Amino acid sequence: MFSPLAGVWVDRWNRHRILVVTQILSMIQALILALLVLTDRILVWHIISLSLALGMINALDTPARQSFVVDMIERREDLGMRLL
After folding, report:
1. In sequence order, which residues have a C-beta less than 8 Å from that of residue 84 and are 6 or more positions away?
2. I want to staple 22 with a disulfide (CB 3.0 to 4.6 A). Which of 2, 61, 68, 84 is the partner?
3. Per-residue model confidence as pLDDT tens digits over 1-21
4. In terms of C-beta distances under 8 Å and separation of at least 24 residues, what long-range contacts does 39-43 make, across chains too?
5. How does pLDDT run across 26-57, given as a tens digit for each residue?
6. Helices (H) and strands (E) in the chain, counts
7. 71 Cβ partners below 8 Å, 6+ apart?
8. What is the three-class DSSP state of 30?
9. What is the reported pTM?
């Protein structure tokens, strides 16, 4: 549900900054999960909410990552597709 909006946002914002922010958010999400597990305070709703958060983060990260590949290539003829 969030991916179509995320694709529009990726086209309008700086892709590099989006990737950095989404990776930081993913790291924070993983750290929270690890701390909850290591302190033995994890509950089912923690897992569900952290999974939903990671899904929204990935919905923004995936289109940014895929479109960033094109930005990293200097010469268009190095792309694996032909543009007509």
Report:
1. none
2. 61
3. 777 888 888 889 998 999 999
4. none
5. 999 999 999 999 999 999 999 999 999 999 99
6. 3, 0
7. 15
8. helix
9. 0.81
75 vs 81: CA distance, rounded Å? 12
Which amino acid appears at position 21 of this protein? V
Q: Is 63:7 a contact under the CB 8 Å cutoff?
A: yes
Give dist(CA 32, CA 49) in Å, integer.
Answer: 11
Residues 80, 18: Cα–Cα separation, whole Å? 24
Which of 56, 60, 54, 70 minimizes the C-alpha distance to 10?
A: 60
Determine the straight-line distance between the first and last CA of the chain, rounded to whole angstroms: 32
Q: In residues, how long is the chain?
A: 84
